[in-house]
């Protein structure tokens, strides 16, 4: 980790911006994926707790 930090510190500004952009895209994609998963879980649980009309 320290080696990567030193490598990042010595890299040119364009490489730094590229690395930050990649981290930002991964971070946003992870948040979107988690929110989508929780939304689908809530939809499934809502269907479980509804009353069945077939009785």
Report on this model:
The protein contains two helices and no strands. The chain has 55 residues and is mainly α. It has one domain. The mean pLDDT is 85.
Spatial shape: rod-shaped
- Give the integer mean of the pLDDT values: 85
Number of domains: 1
Q: What proportion strand? A: under 5%
- SSE order, as H and E? HH
CA-atom Rg in angstroms: 22 Å
The N- and C-terminal alpha carbons lie at a distance of 61 Å
Low-confidence stretches: none
Task: Decide which structural class fits the backbone.
Answer: mainly alpha
Figure out the total of helices.
Answer: 2
Number of separate strands = 0
Largest sheet: none
What is the share of helical residues? over 70%
Give the arrangement of secondary structure elements.
Layout lengths: L1 H9 L2 H37 L6
Summed up:
This protein is mainly α and 55 residues long. The chain contains two helices and no strands.
